[in-house]
Amino acid sequence: MILLHGGLGSIGAWANQVPEVAKTHKVIAIDSRGHGRSTRDATPYSYALMASDVLALMDGKGIAKAPILGWSDGGIIALEIAINDPGRISGALTVGTNYSLDGLDPGVETNEVFAEHFGEAAMMYLPTPPTPDQFEAFVGDIVGMWGIQPNYNEEQLKSVSAPFTVVQALQGEAIVDEHAAKMAALLPGSTYVPPEGVSHFAMWQDPARMNGEIRTFLDAQ
User: Fold this and answer.
1) Which of 6, 58, 64, 71 is the most exposed place for a label (fewest CB within 10 A)?
2) What is the pLDDT of residues 75-116, one digit of tens each?
């Protein structure tokens, strides 16, 4: 199973989930380009670009197809692969993921919990990257991408053949609940999971519940 973290994060986001997935699957956790220990170049960020990195890693390891666990931006990367390279993904569990800009909660920019995550991202980034002096530029590039992407349409979602489990916390700070429910309705054969009492960071706040959802998803693969 391929684990993809959210924007500004790193593979550390999945620390509570790796042991559960590893019970039955080989785990491949990826630091997206410019995140964690991964390098980046001057190529403008896009979800298609980051999806191409995932596919290149799969090619390098001889993996034809795999399920994906994707949080936030990681879930969008899973959508990108499911739409444009459907033969490479056997299914996905996404957490706090939108498919278009109208899915973003307008209050996210002033939300205190989300702002705290930005600070945590900086703390995780600074000790590990090849270019520790580029954090501000990196954040600017990611935020710029968020301003114009993702922008998938309903027909693209309806074309997806891989089964999705769409987890959208009802106390989420970033994604509008109705948008996530609509995404699940558009994805053929998907499962919608709206847990109470957790937010966009559900896998940290209630790892046991998240691990249970992951196990249910994997058991159905």
Assistant:
1) 64
2) 999 999 999 999 999 999 999 999 999 999 998 888 887 788
Here the CATH number for the domain that contains residue 49 is 3.40.50.1820
Joined together, the tokens standing for residue 109 give 């920019």
- Asked whether residue 220 is assigned to any structural domain, the reply reads no
- For 90, residues 6+ apart whose C-beta sits below 8 A from its C-beta are 65, 66, 67, 162, 221
Write down the pLDDT at residue 127. 72
- Expressed as residue numbers, the domain containing 66 is 2-215
Report pTM: 0.96
Q: Is the confidence at residue 129, as pLDDT, over 80? A: no
